[in-house]
Amino acid sequence: MQFSACGNYKTRYVDEATIFPNDTGRVLVAVLLLFLATLPLWLSPYLVFVFTLIGIFIVGAVGLNILTGSTGQISLGHSAFMGLGAYATGLLAQAGLPFWLAIPVAGAVAAAAGAFFGIPSLRVKGLYLALATLAAQVILQFAFNLFDSRGGGTSYLSVPQATLGGLVLDRERLFYYVVLVTAVLAVFAALNLFRTRIGRAFTAIRDNDRAAAAMGINVFAYKLLSFSISAFYAGVAGALWAYASGVVSAERFTLLLSVEYLAMIIVGGLGSVLGSILGATVITVLPEGLRVAADYMSQVLPQATHLFLAMRFAVFGLIIVGFLMLEPQGLADRWRVIKTYFNTWPFRY
Amino acid sequence: MSHQLEVAGLNLSFGGLRALVDVNLHVDAGELVAVIGPNGAGKTSLINCINGFYRPQAGTITFEGYNITRQPPHVIAGRGIARAFQNVELFRGMTVLENLTLARHLHLRYGVAHALAYYGRAQAEEAANRRFVEEILDFMELEPYRHKVVGTLAYGIQKRVEMARALCLEPKLLLLDEPMAGMTVAEKEDMARFIMDVNEERGTSIILIEHDLHVVMDLSSRVYVLNFGQVIASGRPAEVARDPRVIEAYLGDEAGVAS
Asked: For an interface test with A, which of B75, B92, B102 has the most A Cβ atoms less than 10 Å from its Cβ?
């Protein structure tokens, strides 16, 4: 095993296409995954739930990054697709479908909706497309509200706990493993996508759609494919969220969440799978971190809890502006710079 | 014998501007044909019609017996027509290797499921594909730049990547839109050699748009001269150069100068 190669010593083309250029990365990821698997054994249920949330938003953010970061199509409707997945899961779970079937089906429902709402991308680009996807958000949100108020009043959709062969995957501990496995699968699928013809076609459309068409890429078909893959990820994230929270309501899937998703991929790094992971982690942990900080502060300053809750949005906005100005490539690029630095460290050649 | 590419009675106008007027043109398999003409004569518009970017109002374009008029660009690329752009239109954020691999899109056949799993078929096809891309890299002498991001390369190199990318489609007909514009003499000579090699070794037919008349005379077997959207002369390079209408188009009307 080598720590890190300082040159390219590959002898086969297959080796150059691997996800990890050397054993170090493989070992580190394996250790990290083992560590994550032990979390429910020693962490408090609350913190396990935070990690569950991080996992869910990683799935969603990876999906949005495929569409916005890599294909260059801005979407303001990502939270609506997530909501669609959550509602579909709620209904499917109540109908008695096992979770391992309900999750992909919910993803497929969202993917179909994603492809439908992606149709305007044939004609409109950039800001105009962002507005067209905003329509998806508004329409679906309206549908969720209608659903919530069915039969008068407000009745939320309750989701039964996931079970696997008689074993109840409780929300506090065991369901975390479902999220962990799904997130790992989602990340690897996305990494694979970007070393194949489909991922390259996405990037080509982002960089230069005229040239992409001249190279034989059916631009519209691939835009729709990108929309539906991205919505599939959102749908799966919504399905996981439905199981994890136990109740589905329209309040959670507002435009704000779509904007939070955009914040995740901007903070993490557009077009980078690693960036989606980092961004989702930061944006999910941030409000929780602020709350913990507020709790500590309130011992000294009784008003702190109030103040911090009000400051949440301000801090959120500051972080986005800060990243756009100081680190527009996101955390993923910072990580790349650190890695490059240590490639030859401690030598200076 | 029918021609590989046949353009008949092509008309294209933008509003009131007639970009192409009754253009007739043909290319035989393995031929290198040049299209010349002053700026704004409609050369690039012609290429854009053949390649599917523009939809001509009238006329037909037939390639190997198929009517490709007004077909979308990706379908025409699938028929075996590739192009290089005048203003370099590469995928600037990608490396040279990624640009070329992307152009292999049509030659890779695995679907979404294989792509997501990256196992078996996808992996095998990608490796075989890489071998082909390396051949093109070698052919166009681009090996030193393989992993360089295209946006950081010198202009002359970018033009070469542009042509290499078109070659990765394994085209039967290659449309080259001013491949030597803005190059130094040495770079032009290199590029001329590449164009000849593609034509002779790979047997690819080429339509070449070029301003440098020396290059056109040396490389092409036939020349079409466009002026204000019309073909004003065609034939062997030496004949065309003597044609009074061509001289008039390039140098102006002698009578006009006199009066």
From this structure: B102
Residues of A in contact with B110 (CB under 8 A): 196-197
Q: How much is the ipTM here?
A: 0.88
Query: Are A21 and A36 a contacting pair, CB within 8 Å?
Result: no
Residues A332 and A272: beta-carbon distance below 8 Å: yes
Residues pairing with B33 in the sheet: B207, B222
Given an 8 Å threshold on Cβ–Cβ distance, is A215 in contact with B117?
no
Per residue in B66-123, pLDDT tens? 999 999 999 999 999 999 998 888 988 889 999 999 999 888 888 888 888 777 778 8
CA distance B217 to chain A (A): 28
Which of A78, A67, B113 is closest to A86 using CA atoms? A78
Q: Please give the interface size between A and B, counted as residue pairs whose CB atoms are below 8 Å apart.
A: 104
Q: Are A32 and A58 in contact (CB under 8 A)?
A: no
Helix (H) or strand (E) holding A191: helix A175-193
Closest-CA residue of chain A to B124 = A14
Q: Which domains does chain A have, with CATH numbers?
A: 40-344 (1.10.3470)
Chain segment B182-212, per-residue pLDDT in tens: 888 898 999 999 999 999 988 899 999 988 8
Residue A66 φ then ψ, to 5°: -60, -40
Tokens linked to B239: 């004949």
Tokens of B100: 């070329």
On the CB side of B167, CA atoms within 13 Å amount to: 24
Domains of chain B: 5-258 (3.40.50.300)
Bridge-based pairing of strands A162-164 and A167-169 is: antiparallel
Give the torsion through C-alpha atoms of B175, B177, B179, B181, to 10 deg. Answer: 170
- Give B25's strand partners: B7
